[in-house]
Design goal:
The complex is a heterodimer of chains A (273) and B (143). Chain A has 273 residues and is of the alpha/beta class. Chain A has one domain: Rossmann fold, CATH 3.40.50.150. Chain A is 34% helix and 23% strand. Chain A is built from nine helices and ten strands. Chain A has a seven-stranded mixed sheet, sandwiched between helices. A three-stranded antiparallel sheet of chain A has the order 1-3-2. In chain A, strand 5, helix 6 and strand 6 form a beta-alpha-beta unit. In chain A, helix 1 packs antiparallel against helix 4 and helix 4 crosses helix 5. The longest helix of chain A has 18 residues. Chain A starts with a helix and ends with a strand. Chain B is an all-alpha fold. Chain B has one domain. In chain B, helix 2 runs parallel beside helix 4 and helix 3 runs antiparallel to helix 4. The chains are: A alpha/beta (273), B mainly alpha (143). At the A-B interface, helix 3 of A face helix 3 and helix 4 of B. Chain A: This is DOT1 domain-containing protein.
Chain lengths: 273, 143
């Protein structure tokens, strides 16, 4: 069912990309209501729309029928966050969000796999942690960029996804009392994600009860713009092997950075062998 | 297989292209990104040819041309044009960054956001051009 939801979302994105003639830097869609293609609980959909309408990165929205699905299109701009992140130089990867709907699907899958806590590393505006929370999972959002954490605090008013302004490489994960967590690593392997994942994996694997218990989700790419990994897994194969992880499943979903591309972003779910 | 004369002519033709680009660069106060990239590529192209031909040729005429070329690159490009390009790019990036940051505090219309997005794109291009130029700087400082 979750795989079908992901497939339908990719098809919706492809249909939307063909007809979109706006000029916004980023754009995404959320179905207006539940349907056979998107059987999502209405309160969840309502929360996803609220996240977009309250989020200052989106400056315009309008309704549009895409294929057979009534949707709301959100148009946004993240340039000022990019400018802030490069000024500080502390961020390993520039902010570029996944789609809100994709955040919902990946956290839905994390819940389906039995994980109880989501930790969104390099969380941008906190959308993955937000989605986990509306699915009744515990969630924590860790972001080094203060401007993005301020943005998260704006979006955190009704649903608390615990934004932390911190360097994920030095963060004290023991303080979260994690039991069965899954970590989402922000950034492609080739865009600073690998270094970030290395740091966090080392920290988590030093906590004995979490080493065998934790799940990991990596955003990959098959784009020829990036050097492939000799062990594949959309750029993450070597890291997965070196840290004794095994890939459980890969789900492809739309993201801001693949909007103009034919391939979506593969999310690789993995856990310890 | 190309004759020694063919190779010498090919090198001379590339040298003339480079000389034109250097003359253009000297005559301009601010080069656009396309001109910058084209000039650096030609510098690298001619430098690589010179390195390779120096090891292979016994022709004094070609060796003289290679020396002339290296002198042009060192005295004109490395000492004058390259530092000017670096300084212009740095100043332009700083100026654009300041301008874009100062406009962040106000509420913007959809049209203004979308026209500013073009300036952000231009800034990104200038920054990646500067990274490319910085790599050349690292190369000449190791020579």
């Amino acid at each position: 069912m979750i795989e079908d939801l992901a497939k339908n979302l990719v098809e919706l994105k492809n249909e939307f990309a063909k007809s979109y003639d706006g000029k916004s830097q980023i754009q995404e869609v959320i179905p207006k209501s539940t349907s056979s293609l998107f059987p999502i609980a209405e309160p969840h959909l309502e929360s996803l729309h609220q996240f977009a309408t309250k989020n200052p990165i989106y400056y315009n929205y309008f309704e549009k029928k895409i294929g057979s699905v009534d949707c709301v299109v959100y148009e946004g701009d993240i340039n000022r966050y990019w400018l802030n992140s490069i000024q500080h130089g502390s961020s390993k990867a520039p902010f570029s969000p996944t789609w809100i709907m994709s955040g919902y699907v990946v956290t839905l899958f994390a819940k389906h796999l039995g994980f109880s806590e989501v930790i969104d590393i390099g969380s941008g505006d906190g959308r993955i942690a937000f989605c986990a929370k509306i699915l009744d999972m515990e969630s924590f959002s860790i972001e080094i960029d203060d401007m993005l954490v301020d943005l998260q605090k704006l979006l955190n008013k009704t649903i608390d996804f615990h934004p932390h302004c911190s360097d994920a490489a030095t963060f004290d994960y023991n303080s979260l009392n994690l039991k069965h967590p899954i970590f989402f690593i922000g950034g492609l392997a080739q865009m600073g994600g690998n270094a970030l994942a290395e740091d966090v994996l080392q920290k988590i694997h030093s906590i004995s009860h979490l080493k065998a218990n934790a799940g990991w989700v990596f955003a990959g790419t098959f784009s020829q713009k990036y050097a492939p990994d000799p062990k594949n897994e959309a750029g993450w194969g070597s890291l997965i092997e070196e840290h004794n992880l095994k890939s459980i499943q890969t789900i492809s979903l739309p993201t801001a950075w693949t909007f103009h591309e034919t391939e979506s972003t593969p999310y690789i779910f993995s856990q310890s062998i | 297989m190309a004759s020694a004369e063919d190779i010498s002519q090919m090198f001379h033709s590339e040298y003339l292209k480079l000389q034109n680009l250097i003359n253009t660069a000297n005559s301009k106060t601010d080069m656009n990104i396309h001109e910058i990239i084209e000039t650096y590529y030609q510098i690298m192209n001619v430098s690589s040819m010179a390195t390779m031909l120096k090891q292979q040729t016994k022709s004094n005429e070609l060796l003289d041309r290679i020396r002339e070329t290296e002198k042009l690159i060192s005295e004109q490009f490395d000492s004058i044009i390259h530092p000017k390009i670096m300084a212009n790019l740095t100043a332009s990036i700083q100026e654009m960054t300041r301008a874009l940051q100062s406009g962040n505090s106000t509420e913007k219309s959809k049209e203004k956001i979308e026209s500013d997005a073009k300036l952000f794109e231009e800034l990104r291009q200038k920054m990646s051009t500067k990274e490319f130029v910085d790599q050349y700087e690292i190369g000449i400082s190791h020579d």
